Amino acid sequence: MAITTLGYALLGLLARESYSGYDLGRQLKAPIGFYWHARYSQIYPELAKLEAEELAIFEVVEQHDLPAKKVYTITEKGREALKEWVTAATDLPPMRDELILKTFSLWLADPEQAIALFHQQIELHTKQLQHYEEFERKLEEDKEDVSNSFSPLFATYATLKVGLDYERMYIQWCHWTIAQLERTGTSLQKG
Amino acid sequence: MAITTLGYALLGLLARESYSGYDLGRQLKAPIGFYWHARYSQIYPELAKLEAEELAIFEVVEQHDLPAKKVYTITEKGREALKEWVTAATDLPPMRDELILKTFSLWLADPEQAIALFHQQIELHTKQLQHYEEFERKLEEDKEDVSNSFSPLFATYATLKVGLDYERMYIQWCHWTIAQLERTGTSLQKG
DNA sequence: TCCCTCATGTAAAAGGTTACATGATTTA
DNA sequence: TAAATCATGTAACCTTTTACATGAGGGA
Questions:
Q1: Burial class (CB in 10 A: 0-12, 13-18, 19+), A60
Q2: Do residues B111 and A84 touch, judged by C-beta distance below 8 A?
Q3: What's the pLDDT tens digit per position in A14-44?
Q4: Which of A157, A123, A125 is nearest to A138 (CA)?
Q5: Residue A136 and residue A122: Cα distance in Å, rounded?
Q6: Partner-chain contact A12 B105, CB within 8 Å
Q7: Most buried residue among A2, A8, A116, B95 by CB atoms closer than 10 A?
Q8: Measured between beta carbons, which residues in chain A are less than 8 angstroms from residue B32?
């Protein structure tokens, strides 16, 4: 059976260090989760598949005061599969951004409500950007490794960079759209 | 039953003019399809649902030399539903870009193969950008309407603008990543 | 006492892709 | 003659989300 993209996302984390399913779920919030999100209900069955195909193995770790956990470790087979996948050609991703879809029908909307929508989006994306910037500051403390392309920190930074660039671009576009709406929308309708 | 996002994508097109399922499928390639993609196997059943809920109606149009088609028209109910949806608050989209996921594990890769991957991506995104730029040129011919926020052309241009900005940002990031890989990757491994 | 965190899952439903099915006309 | 375009769909499968299920320990 072929490995799913989620499978590679999990292997990508396990190639750096061993994690339990629960910890993988938290990692899939930051920083990878900013790019590839999954719920526990998808993660646990996926880990079982990885284990069945011998791409990862687990060890049960008992804890005092906390429930036992299954700590997964990548196998050599898993590392090879990941390595092969990393440089394989990829198609353009299918873009599915609801705000952009809404923008296509923005001409139907009351401009003031439309402006409110874009302000809400600026808020969300600014929060996201701030998470990235905080993460960037943390990365810069281990500065030596970031420029070495064989270091995981380099890869983390390259991933983070596109996130930073994306959010800044997106926020700028929201501001531009608001400016357009304010210039032609509000005065015409209410004036 | 709630309307799906694809349903709104179709209504967004039908709010501008009537289309057959086949024509909607082609529209979902450009310009909306750049942001919201769907196959015919998803479009036809979705249109049947819209019709069942009286958000759109169809008329069979016979053609000489070509098969008959069902031309769908949005209803007042459909237009109202679309209008309400347009300005409703939206969450951050779940980003699922395989290249960015691969970038997270780039430290495992042979730098020369990694560079080749990013060159391939620059090619794909440059092609996409050129489509956008061509579309922009066409839009500029009807210049008067683009600045009026109640005109569909304004909405189209706002949608297009984020596409242009996104692709330019993305291509820049690919170049940046290649530069990093060339600086530290290639000499170390083979030198 | 109630909610949050830790920890692992299953079941059902929704959303999306791939493959299949049909059939006429036009273009290479 | 073969492939592409027009035109509409169904079936099977895969991916993702939502809801359900359990249970211990710690903090407000």
A1: exposed
A2: no
A3: 999 999 999 999 999 877 777 899 999 999 9
A4: A157
A5: 20
A6: yes
A7: A8
A8: 101, 104
CB contact under 8 A, A90 and B107: no
Half-sphere exposure of A94 (CA within 13 A, CB side): 8
Residue among B9, B35, B120 whose CB faces A89 most closely: B120
Count CB atoms within 10 A of the CB of residue B6. 21
pLDDT digits (tens, 9 = 90+) for B89-130: 999 998 899 999 999 999 999 999 999 999 999 999 999 999
pTM of the shown model: 0.95
* Amino acid B75 CA to nucleotide C28 C1' distance, rounded Å: 43
- Helix pair angle (B76-86, B5-14), 10° resolution: 120
User: CA–CA separation, A38 vs A12, rounded Å?
Assistant: 14
- Asked if A173's CB is within 8 angstroms of B161's CB, the reply is yes
What is the per-residue pLDDT across B27-61, written as a single tens digit (0 to 9) for each? 998 777 788 999 999 999 999 999 999 999 999 99
**Dihedrals φ, ψ of A16, to 5°?**
-95, -40
Q: What is the pLDDT of residue A187?
A: 61
The rounded distance, in Å, linking the Cα atoms of B89 and B36 is 18
Residue B186: pLDDT band by 50, 70, 90 thresholds?
Answer: low
**CA-to-CA separations, A179 to B158, B171, B178, in angstroms, rounded:** 11, 27, 36
d(CA B126, CA B99): 15
Residues of B in contact with A181 (CB under 8 A): 149
Q: Is B58 helix (H, G, I), strand (E, B) or coil?
A: strand
- The per-residue pLDDT for range A76-123, each reduced to its tens digit, is 999 999 999 999 999 999 889 999 999 999 999 999 999 999 999 999
Nucleotides of D under 7 A from a protein CB: 6-12, 14-20, 23-26
